[in-house]
Amino acid sequence: MNSHTETRKIAPIVFVLDCDNTLLDNDALKRDMDARLRDLLGAKLTDSFWRIYENVRAAEGTVDLPATFAAFRPSLDSDEQLERARSLVMNFPFNEYIYPDTPATIELLKRHGSPVIVSDGDAVYQPGKIIKSGLAQAVDNEWVVYVHKEDHLSALMDRWPANFYVMIDDKSRILASTKALRPDRFVTVHVLQGHYSADRASPAPDITVPGIGGVRDLNFEGLSIYLRQ
Predict the structure, then answer these.
(1) 27-61 burial, b if ≥16 CB within 10 A, otherwise e?
(2) Rounded-to-integer distance, Cα 44 and Cα 11, Å
(3) Calpha distance 191→194 (Å, rounded)
(4) Are 135 and 26 in contact (CB under 8 A)?
(5) What pLDDT sits at residue 61?
(6) Over 80: is that where the pLDDT of 4 sits?
(7) What is the model's pTM?
(8) Which ranges of 2-42 does DSSP label H, i.e. alpha helix?
(9) Could you give the CA distance from residue 19 to residue 115 in angstroms, rounded to a whole number?
(10) How many CA atoms lie within 13 A of 145 on its CB side?
(11) Got the DSSP string for 52-117?
């Protein structure tokens, strides 16, 4: 992560970009990862891996790959088998799953403000995904990972001072929580990509776009009309 010890100038707009199913097709990534794990481990062990993955996520409220692998180890014959599975997951070709419209969208956002990535996830796998996919470099290493980003809005605003913020995410729940907490500082944009796209939460997002490329069609000069006291 980029160091933020220096004094920051206040940006006109900070665009708060989610990672999974917003900039990167995580659904397709997970499907392909499942297929490769089945080739490596077989169906029974792969099913066990995903069952543990979901149990850990339910217990912790977020994906946690290190905890998943620790719980998965007793199902395997050796540490070597675990390491092969871990290497497959942690060194997946994440760059192949960037949405085609993502690079051009990020470049356009740089002309109107400062794009940053704020992602949910664990402290090992998710940072690796952001870095290895090339997304960290695309946003000039302006990124951070929280377990639940909506619980860290004050830290986010301290880290990237701005006149206001535009949160762009595939999860309506996160957008709704953010809008309810800080309607005076955040404009919310729902990107209808991925398996959460049909979910709805209240308050509704300020803007809805069909995909990340739709962000380029926003009226950037008029975004502040969505702010509420």
Answers:
(1) bebbeebeeebeeebeeebbebbeebbeebeeeee
(2) 51
(3) 9
(4) no
(5) 82
(6) no
(7) 0.92
(8) 26-41
(9) 12
(10) 20
(11) HHHHHHHHHSS--HHHHHHHHGGGSS-HHHHHHHHHHHHT--GGGGB-TTHHHHHHHHHHHSEEEE
CB atoms inside a 10 Å sphere around CB 70: 13
Reading the block at residue 80, the tokens are 């070597």
What are the tens digits of pLDDT across the range 130-181? 999 999 999 999 999 998 888 999 999 999 999 999 999 999 999 999 999 9
- For 66, the token pair is 């290190």
C-alpha to C-alpha distance for 229 and 220, rounded to whole angstroms: 20
With tokens 């595939």, the residue in question is: 170
What strands, in cross-sheet order, belong to the sheet with 143-146? 143-146, 114-120, 11-17, 162-169, 186-191, 207-209
Contacts of 135 (CB under 8 A, 6+ apart): 19, 23, 24, 98, 102, 117, 143
DSSP code of residue 168: E
Distance CA 187, CA 201 (A): 15
- Cα(61)–Cα(49) distance, integer angstroms: 18
pLDDT bucket at 7, cuts 50 / 70 / 90? low
The set of residues, in sequence order, having a beta carbon less than 8 Å from that of 72 and lying 6+ positions away, is 48, 49, 52, 82, 85
**What SS3 state is found at 143?**
strand
